[in-house]
């Protein structure tokens, strides 16, 4: 499934609100907040020369978010950041003075935070970020998970002190229930998807993701010519595409959104010209991307800043996981979860079927993002045939072999 962006808005500047959210000043704020996180460090950017040569590319780089802030996923950047912003804004109102990130541990600010409850729906990673942010700020978190979320992912969220609520149905059902319960109880919803009338907080979540782009551009010797990024509701894809469009302008890379064929809600939006709900059929192995309705804000950005949309099959995703775990030549070992290697899966499929459509050739420099490590180690071992520890141990053996 491949669809060039034929939307009338394609190539137009971002909506003013989105440009402010995803622009340079917003990214500066994110970096300032990250500087106050005890375990913040720039995540690795790996070159894969062997795979690039095999595919017929000049260069292939993987930005590895499996190390982000101890949560193993890019989502660590979004939910917690939004929680901090909301706590500080509320504290500023209640205390009658300006409050910033360095005040987060002050007793008067924490007293305000203690009266706040943050709710969200999650497939796993976003909920961990919101729960961690609430714990660090001294607030309460209630996390809604749908029937398909594994026990391992639920336990990973609960360890941050969050109250867990199981919801029948899929991710979209959990989004609706979280919003309903939060409205009844006066809680703040920190969602990574948006809907009419609810856009600012998902925008803050997306703003958090701009740190990935800024780091990658610093780490690369030259900007990429092509970027493949996976999408659930579209937040990470929109954040990356939007920030690249702002900072690189006419020199921005060709941007391709990649989704599971079984949950291709952004492809459906591209085909319809607006956000639509797609039918829920079989679940996808790409658990963190199993979403059936795109975010309104994300689609508004992608309609302008994405160049093509594509979907990959289950085997494509698992194949990318295995290829990263067992690389050829001098390529490094990378542990990618079920959704982490989907951008790479899209690239491999595109090189076989859509090379000419996208202008991919021997001069192309491609960037993909490993959006998660093995956030569910048991599931990773089932799919790859090795535990994450064994995959990394193999790397250590290879490095020690003369």
TrEMBL record:
Its EC number is 4.3.1.15. It comes from the Bacteria. The keyword Acetylation does not apply. Its cofactor is pyridoxal 5'-phosphate. One of its GO terms (molecular function) is pyridoxal phosphate binding. Transmembrane segments: none annotated. Gene3D superfamilies: 3.40.50.1100. It is an enzyme of class 4 (lyase). Keywords: Lyase, Pyridoxal phosphate. Residues 39-371 form the Tryptophan synthase beta chain-like PALP domain. The keyword Electron transport does not apply. This is Diaminopropionate ammonia-lyase. It comes from Mesorhizobium jarvisii.
């Amino acid at each position: 499934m491949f669809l060039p962006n034929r939307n009338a808005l394609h190539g137009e500047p971002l909506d003013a609100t989105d440009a402010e959210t995803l622009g340079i000043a917003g990214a500066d704020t994110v970096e300032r907040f990250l500087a106050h996180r005890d375990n913040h460090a720039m995540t690795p950017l790996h070159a894969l020369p062997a795979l690039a040569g095999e595919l017929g590319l000049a260069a292939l780089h993987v930005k590895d978010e499996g190390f982000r802030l101890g949560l193993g996923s890019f989502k660590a950047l979004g939910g917690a950041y939004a929680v901090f912003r909301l706590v500080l804004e509320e504290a500023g109102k209640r205390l009658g003075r300006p409050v910033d990130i360095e005040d987060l541990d002050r007793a008067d600010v924490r007293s305000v935070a203690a009266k706040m409850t943050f709710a969200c729906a999650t497939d796993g990673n976003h909920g961990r970020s919101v729960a961690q942010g609430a714990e660090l700020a001294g607030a309460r978190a209630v996390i809604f998970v749908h029937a398909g979320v594994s026990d391992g992912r639920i336990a990973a969220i609960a360890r941050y002190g969050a109250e867990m609520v199981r919801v029948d149905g899929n991710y979209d059902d959990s989004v609706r229930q979280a919003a309903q319960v939060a409205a009844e109880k006066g809680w703040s919803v920190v969602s990574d998807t948006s809907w009419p009338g609810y856009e600012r907080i998902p925008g803050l979540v997306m703003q958090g993701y701009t740190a990935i782009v800024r780091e990658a551009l610093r780490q690369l010797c030259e900007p990429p010519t092509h970027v493949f990024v996976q999408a659930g509701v579209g937040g990470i894809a929109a954040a990356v595409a939007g920030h690249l469009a702002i900072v690189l302008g006419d020199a921005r890379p060709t941007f391709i959104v990649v989704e599971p064929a079984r949950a291709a809600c952004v492809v459906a939006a591209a085909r319809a010209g607006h956000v639509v709900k797609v039918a829920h059929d079989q679940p996808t192995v790409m658990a963190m991307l199993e979403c059936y309705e795109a975010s309104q804000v994300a689609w508004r950005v992608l309609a302008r800043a994405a160049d093509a949309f594509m979907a990959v099959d289950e085997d494509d995703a698992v194949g990318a996981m295995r290829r990263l775990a067992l690389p050829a030549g001098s390529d490094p070992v990378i542990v990618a979860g079920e959704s982490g290697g989907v951008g790479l899966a899209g690239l491999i499929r595109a090189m076989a079927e859509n090379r000419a459509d996208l202008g991919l050739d021997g001069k192309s420099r491609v960037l993909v993002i490993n959006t998660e490590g093995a956030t569910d180690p048991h599931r990773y071992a089932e799919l790859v045939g090795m535990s994450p520890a064994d995959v990394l141990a193999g790397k250590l053996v290879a490095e020690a072999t003369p």
